[in-house]
Here is the input.
Amino acid sequence: MKRTPLATAAISLCIVACSPVLAGQGGPVSVTATADSTPIAYARLARLALDSDIVLDATIRSVARIAPDEAPGLAAGHVRFYVTADVGALIRANGPLPARIGYLVDVPFDPRGRAPNLKRQRVVAFARAVAGRPDQVQLVTPDAQFAWAPTLDQRVRDVVRDVIAPDAPPAITGIGNAFHVPGTLPGEGETQIFLQTTNGAPVSLLILRRPGEQRRWALSLGDIIDEAGGAPKPDTLAWYRLACGLPATLPETSLQSQDADNAAIARDDFAFVRESLGRCDDGRDG
Here is the structure.
């Protein structure tokens, strides 16, 4: 079959991909059969999209089983295949891919102890290119491949769109200065917390206390600090950056300029933000 390049597409369907080199340098790569009734956690999709330079949708055309003695690192209860798949569409890529790709994948045996039938299965995968092997890809994590479903397709495209946006929120690497300024009325005040980011872009949190009102907070992405933006909505990239990037508690080094009373309030306000964000849940046990 003649292999013609498939031009990259900004946002379209989805593609399955894996690699002749297993993710994690020899670790098992598992196919996760995920139906619409079992949605994948947003935090997991965001992490995979951020770590990938290829996100694709493909249909498996041929499968060759690898003998266990030729499959180093194969986990118990799994079988390794070399798979070729036809690329249906690219959701994200830095360059063209051939119309047919190959990869190694480890999948668990089914409940009856049999190897699953992957032929003609449509899948979505988060992958990286393999240097010097344009027709091969590698999953970014052992379980970064999923059975295609309409809802998953839409969620993946939405996440990738957010990730590649020019104004995408940067990753949080730490916390800079934090301080609380009391207001003129009892119980009134503002806490400002400045975050450190991978690209140096200014990101800050503002927590507001007003007498007779519920405490509220806002995220600012830029030099101007105000409450206009409010708190990020759950299952957005801004939410993910905070829920999965902030430390559990406010570091003492961030409060060196504060007296004991104001430092205590700042700690409490940070804890309020962490609680309102919720857990960075990737949908997996542990």
In short: Residues 1-21, 24-36 have pLDDT under 50 and may be disordered. Residues 9 and 23 are 24 Å apart (CA to CA).
